[in-house]
Amino acid sequence: MTATTEESWEPDHGAPYRPVPYRPQRMEPSESLARSAELRERMAGRRTVRRFSPDPVPEQVIRDAIACAATAPSGAHQQPWTFVLVRDPEIRGHIRAEAEREERISYDGRLGEEWLAALRPLGTDEVKTHLTDAPALIVVFQQRYWLGEAGEKRKHYYVDESVGISVGMLLSALHLSGLAALVHTPSPMRFLSRVLDRPENEKAFAVIPVGYPADDCQVPDLRRKTLDQVMVEV
Ligand code: IYR
Questions:
Q1: For the whole model, what pTM was predicted?
Q2: Distances (CA, A) of 202 to 109, 110, 137, 141, 143
Q3: Mind listing the pLDDT tens digit for each residue in 93-104?
């Protein structure tokens, strides 16, 4: 399959959309069932990885995953996201140093005892080797508002929801393409705007190291809630 050719998009404030037909071919229920069962199993195999191999990953796979994430629905179709792909080892080192500085303060008590207790089973700490081991970081920014070239501002709606959905789609795309990832949320994340030189309307949402698990990678022996525990039928 060839890559989709894309036309660039700019917000056209207030202009109505032209309705166009949407009639995807309906899938046979048996085919749907085969696909949903396979997807369910593949998604159940996704694990958050904290120990990455430095081996490079095919850059196009990451680009495709970001393109998938950018198909997410968003409030008023404002698409309030920017995905910054960082491969440069020096910048990753810089991000790691700044993240660890903040995390050290967090783990030394800023999080509070209840939060630290909730994290203890996972064994996370302030050492963030994944930021320099993984060959790529995707730093996701939320566009808190739209900023025009002349400095005009417009509200964006449901930004947290929209960007959260797109990150979920990003993680699914990465996993289904064979790459491991971690959602890292150094807190506070303001340093990322400075290090990555992002405009004032953007706020960091998460840092997502991407790569292959290290050969000696281990993950916690955790279990997920069952379908019965998460789903209620009325
Ligand atoms: N942001 C910190 C702490 C942390 C918080 C939660 I909630 C986690 O699920 C994992 C970690 C860190 O990245 O270590």
A1: 0.96
A2: 28, 25, 17, 6, 4
A3: 999 999 999 999
